Every structure is written in C-alpha cells, then in structure tokens.
Amino acid sequence: MHKQGKIALFVLAALALAALACGVPGVPEVPDVPQILEDPVQPEPTPEPAKPAEGPAPATGSASIEIFNNSPYVICYVFISPTSSDSWGNDQLGEEEVIDIGQSRVFSGLAPDFYDLQTQDCDGTMISLNTQVDMTAAGSYTLDVTGADPGTVPPELGGVAVTVINDSSVEVCFVYISPTTSDTWGNDQLGETQTIPVGTFVTLGGYAPGRYDLRAEGCDQNTYWEAFDQDLTSDFEWTLND
To answer: Is the dihedral of CA 187, 193, 194, 199 positive or negative?
Structure first.
C-alpha cells in the first residue's frame, strides 16, 4: 500500500471515532445506568426529651365547716372569708336563715385555704371572731361559738351555774368545763388559788346553755373525774365520789 493510502485510512478512522464521540444523528443516546449502591445506613432516631419531674399534686376536693352555736345569742350573720382577702364578702346565712342557740349549721364547698370567720347576732353585734383558721386540707371542720369565755355569761343573758360537790377523799384543785364540740379542755375554772376541799362545794356560774364535757383533778393531777356530753341548759350539780 502506498504511503498516501495509509494516510487516507488513518484520516477516515479518526473521523469515525469523532462521529461516535459526538453521537450519530438519528440514533438515540443510551441513558446512563445509575449505579446500584448498598443500602444506606439509616440514621438513629432523635430521642424524645425527658419529661420534667412532676411536682406534688395540687389540693383537690373542698372543705366544709360546721358552726355550733353554744353562745347565749341567736346567730343571724356568718361571714367566711379567705384570710388573704381584704373584705368579708356576703353573709353566708342569707336574709331568713339563723342558727338558734344550741343548733349548728354546715357550710360546704369551700376551697382549701386559711379562713377568717365572724358571727354576729341579729343586731349586727359581733359574737365571735376567728382568724387564720387552717382549712388547707379538704375535709370537714368544726367551730364552737360560745360568745364568751366559759363562765362569763351573766344570768340575765341565760348564763347557767355549775355546782361541783366534792364528796371524795381528795382535795380538788382543777376543774375544766368545755363545750362538747370543742377539741380542748380550755382553762382551769378554779383559777390559781381556789380549790374544793373535801366535803365542800363550789358554784361556777356564767355558762351559755348547751352540752358540755366536765373534768376535775386532784391537786396531784393524777386523780381525776370526767363526765361527757352533759346537758347544761339549766343549773347543774356534779358530785365527785371516790
């Protein structure tokens, strides 16, 4: 083959390669085949944030209070107000209801809280005032309204006398007379100097008519007598025996 023929063949081959590289007109290009990859590693799920620690559950339920009228007056007005309030609010009895002497009335549906309580007679004169009464737990409470310390109601206002007769062999130095509805015995009714020697008696006057618990103690405070739920709607005698 002549040198010129070799050159011609080389040129033709080069042109053919160029045509293949640029694509042949009328022939569709074969799309690229995507590579098949291994399954991708799934990311770890984001953990949920921890819940904050729960505090103590709020107080639930309601409180109620039963007011016992052991005073010598008819209660015509009752005010029950949260201690945090600046006003007494409305009368809880309304226009027609009262709490007669020796009777009681329950007031319910109160939110647990500290309360101030006031009672008044039908003239609007205050009978009792109790402040910062702890009713912070749901449940039932009681309030004894005496209108005065035991032993201070004069006979003209219905005060009852209690005569303690000492027929025992022990001198009596302490006497307690407390309304049955009260949770405490209260003060010693004989005072610091008075006693009831053997074979004598003492009359203690001025108790609002009602039901009372009585307790007497010897001077050693070891010997004692008790009488519960006694009817003191009239003058009363209590005899102490061995």
So the answer is: positive
